[in-house]
Each structure stands twice: as structure tokens, then as C-alpha cells.
Design a protein that fits this description.
Order of helices and strands: EEEE
Shape: globular
Helix content: under 10%
Structural class: mainly beta
Strand order of the largest sheet: 3-2-1-4
Number of helices: 0
Distance between the termini: 8 Å
Length: 60
């Protein structure tokens, strides 16, 4: 993948979250509201996040 290119994952639901000492979120996300596959995502966010929110993930 070339630098700057990425994949956008739209409308993923936050099932659980936490933050670490580096002020990075640890998110457990799923593509559907009722579960199914779950993914662990670690990164920063410019907005406050909470369980149940839907988010757009950009994977570089």
C-alpha cells in the first residue's frame, strides 16, 4: 500500500473502550449493532468517544 493510501471502514459500532497512559483509545468495534465479528483498534481521536457510538475508521 502506498504512503497516504488507506481503507475506510464506515459505521462501525463501539462495543467497549478504554484509554492508556499515552492517551490512545483501545476500541472493541463491530460492523453490526448486534455483534458478530469484533476488532480491536488502537489509536487517537479528536472527538470524545463512548460505547454505542458509530465511527468511521481509516486504516493506513
Amino acid at each position: 500500500m502506498s504512503k497516504g493510501a488507506g481503507i475506510e471502514l464506515k459505521d462501525f459500532y463501539i462495543r467497549d473502550l478504554g484509554a492508556d497512559s499515552f492517551k490512545e483509545y483501545h476500541l472493541l468495534v463491530t460492523p453490526t449493532a448486534d455483534g458478530g465479528q469484533e476488532f480491536l483498534v488502537i489509536g487517537k481521536s479528536s472527538s470524545k468517544l463512548k460505547i454505542g457510538d458509530t465511527i468511521l475508521l481509516t486504516v493506513l
